C-alpha cells in the first residue's frame, strides 16, 4: 500500500474514531523497512558502496525508497555509466532526489569540463541553489554565447568562504577574456585575507600574479615582519601584497596597522588601496569596540571604494559615536540590494530624521520607515514604533479549507520529509521539506500553500518546519503558526515560579531550538533551551535540583526548569537588561560584560555593534520574538523599545558581578 494512501487511511480513521488493529497492522507493514533505511544511512556516511547495493532491494516500496536509491547512486556516481544516471533521473522524475542527484552530476560534469553534457542538463536543474553549479553555468554561458556574466560571477565568487573549483574556474576564464581585471582578483584576495582564509586568497593571487603567490604564506604567518622587510613597493602587485599584509596585521592589531599605513604606506598606495585598507582597519577596530574606529573610517575619502561589509561596520562605528551624518552617507553608498535590507533602511531613516534640514527630508525618512514597518522582525518592529504605532497581533488569515489541507497532506515530498524526520533522519527530512516548499517550483509555494504545509508540520509537532515555513509567507501572517507555544503549561508555570516573563522564555526557545525536544548543538548544548552540560550541573545546584543527573537534560520539564533558572540568574546579574542577558545566554556572561563597557547607548545601537554576527542576530531575533509572544500571551499592544532600553557600564551602586555565573 502506498504511503500516502496509508496516511489518508489513518487520517480518515482517526477523524471517525474507527482506528483498528487491522489499520495498525497496515501501518506497521509500511514501516518494516525503517531499520534498513537507517542502516543504509550509516553505510552512506561510511562510503560503503557494497553494503548500500546489498541493502537497496529491501527498500522497494518503502516511502523513503527514493532516498535509499539516491544514497546508492550517489556513492557510485564517479564510476556509474551515463545511462544508469539518466535511468535514475527518469525513475524519480519530479522528485527532490532527481534534482539532488542532478546537482551532484552537474558538479561532476563541471569538474570534468564536460561542457556539452553540462549545457544539455543544466536547463532541467530546478533547485538552482548551488553556488558552484551556478558558477559552472556562468562559464558555459560566457563560452557559448559570449554573455556578460562578470558581475554575477564576481558576486558569487566573493561570497565564498573557501575556494571551490566552479567559481575559481569562471574567474580564471573571465580574467583570460578580460571580463574581470586585476583589481577584481585582488579584491577577492583582500576579502579572503580579512576573513582569515588564506587558501582562497592564494587562489585569487595565483590567477593574477602566480609568481608572487608564495608571498601569501609569509604575509599570513607574520605580516609585521613581512612589512618590515619591504620599505617600498613600486609595482601594482607589490602594493597589493602590502595591502594584504596590512589587512592581516589589522586583524591582530588595528592600531599598529593604522600607524604603519600612516607613516610608510599611505603615500605609496593608490587612493582605492588606501580607502579599502582604512576601511578594514576601521572594521577591525569597530569589532574590538574601540572608540577610534570612526576616526579610521573618516580617512576613507570615497565610500564607493568600500564593499557592503566594510560600509556596514562604518555605520556601526558611527552609530556608536552618535555620528548620524556618517550613518547617512555610508548607507547611501551601499549596493541596491543592501539598501533594501530592513537594518540599513531603518538606520538610514533615523539618520535622515537626525540630520534633516527641511520637511522633504523628514518625509523621506517617514517613507523609509513605512516601507518596512511591520511585526515581522526586529527593525520592522522598531520602524512601527518610530511611526508611533504599537506592536499588536495581526489579523489572522482566512482559515484553511479542507482542500488546501488535503493538498499538503498528500504532497509526496512533504510526506517523505516528515517520515524521514520521524525515524531520526532530520537533516534529510529538512532538506526535502525545504525543497518541496521553496524550490520545486520557481519562487516556491504561494502563501496559502505555505500556510497549509506549515499547518501539517504543526499538527505533527515538527515545530521547526512549522515555524520556518510559516515565516516565508509574504502577505498572510499567522501568528499561531509562526509563534507556537508547545509545553505552555510547563513554560508558564516554571517562568511564573521565578518571576520571569514567559514571553522572554518562549522568545529564546524559538531561537535556540525551534522547539525540537532532543536538539543538540555542535558544542554539546541540549534540549529546548540548549543548556551546556556544565551550566546545567551548576544551575541545578543553584535552583535546588539536588537529584539532577546529566541524562535528565533532555527531559522537557527538567530542561525548562534549568534553562529558565539560568536565564533568571543571568537577567538578575545584568540588572534586568534583556539585551545584555540575551547576549550572555548566547555568548557567555564574560563577553556580554565586556561589550557593555563604553558609552551609554540605545540598546538597538548596542546590539548592532555586537562583534559576533551569530550573537548580534541572536539578540535581535530573541527580543523580536519576545515582543510578539508577549502580544499573543497578553492580547495587549507591546513595545520592543521598552524591552530594549539603554545599555552602558554597570552601575557601581548595584550588586556586585556574579563571578561564578558560567
Would you write up a description of this structure?
With 662 residues, the protein is mostly helical. Helix content is 66%, strand content 1%. It has a two-stranded antiparallel ribbon. Helix 3 (34-46) packs antiparallel against helix 4 (49-55). The protein is globular and about 75 Å long. The two termini are 54 Å apart.
Average pLDDT reading: 93
Contiguous helical run count = 40
**Major β-sheet annotation:** 2 strands, antiparallel
**Fraction of residues in helices?**
55-70%
Our estimate of the beta-strand percent is: under 5%
Decide which structural class fits the backbone. mainly alpha
Give unreliable regions as ranges.
1-23
Please provide the count of β strands: 2
Q: How large is the radius of gyration?
A: 28 Å
Strand order of the largest sheet: 1-2
Give the N-terminus to C-terminus distance in angstroms: 54 Å
Describe the SSE topology.
Blueprint lengths: L2 H14 L4 H11 L2 H13 L2 H7 L9 H11 L6 H10 L4 H17 L2 H7 L9 H15 L4 H10 L5 H12 L5 H13 L3 H11 L6 H7 L1 H6 L7 H17 L1 H12 L5 H17 L5 H5 L10 H14 L2 H9 L3 H4 L2 H14 L3 H14 L5 H9 L15 H8 L2 H11 L3 H14 L7 H13 L3 H8 L8 H4 L5 H10 L4 H11 L20 H10 L13 H18 L4 H10 L1 H8 L4 E2 H6 L4 H22 L5 H5 L1 E2 L15
